[in-house]
């Protein structure tokens, strides 16, 4: 949905809840696209901050762990993220730089990922045009 700060996010566990949540989100955010995603349990919310310029240069400013949230709002952001092994964190930074170069991004931005500590894999969530 087009909401920020957790607007439009609902966790559902059965068909009845899907219907109810869909109607709630539709009323909360009229004319916003609505989509479904699988819930990922026991993951960390990791963000990488980047800056891109008009010449195609992009650099990473580091990252942070934003897992601690209340009602989908971040309570605090800890950086650098100590829960991600350094080689994987570097890979996340490189992926973030590759993405921002590919779309010719200019300015400061944050690329968000879910990091699965058990399988040591990360999954792209979104790019926000702000730090």
From TrEMBL:
Gene3D superfamilies, A to Z: ATP-grasp fold, A domain, ATP-grasp fold, B domain
Required cofactor names: biotin
GO molecular function terms attached to this record: acetyl-CoA carboxylase activity; ATP binding
Alphabetical UniProt keywords: ATP-binding, Biotin, Ligase, Nucleotide-binding
Domain Carbamoyl phosphate synthase ATP-binding, residue spans: 124-131
GO biological process, one term: fatty acid biosynthetic process
PROSITE patterns to which the protein is assigned, alphabetical: CPSASE_2 (PS00867)
InterPro entries noted in UniProt: ACCA (IPR049076), ATP_grasp_subdomain_1 (IPR013815), CPAse_ATP-bd (IPR005479)
Protein name: Acetyl-CoA carboxylase 1
């Amino acid at each position: 949905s087009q909401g920020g700060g957790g607007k439009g996010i609902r966790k559902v566990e059965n068909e009845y809840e899907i219907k109810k949540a869909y109607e709630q989100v539709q009323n909360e955010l009229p004319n916003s696209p609505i989509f479904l995603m699988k819930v990922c349990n026991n993951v960390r919310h990791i963000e990488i901050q980047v800056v891109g310029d008009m010449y195609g240069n992009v650099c990473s400013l580091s990252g942070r762990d934003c897992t601690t949230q209340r009602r989908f709002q971040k309570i605090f952001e800890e950086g650098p993220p100590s829960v991600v092994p350094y080689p994987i964190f570097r890979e996340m930074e490189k992926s973030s730089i590759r993405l921002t170069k590919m779309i010719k991004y200019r300015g400061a931005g944050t690329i968000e990922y879910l990091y699965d500590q058990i399988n040591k894999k990360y999954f792209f969530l979104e790019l926000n045009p702000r730090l």
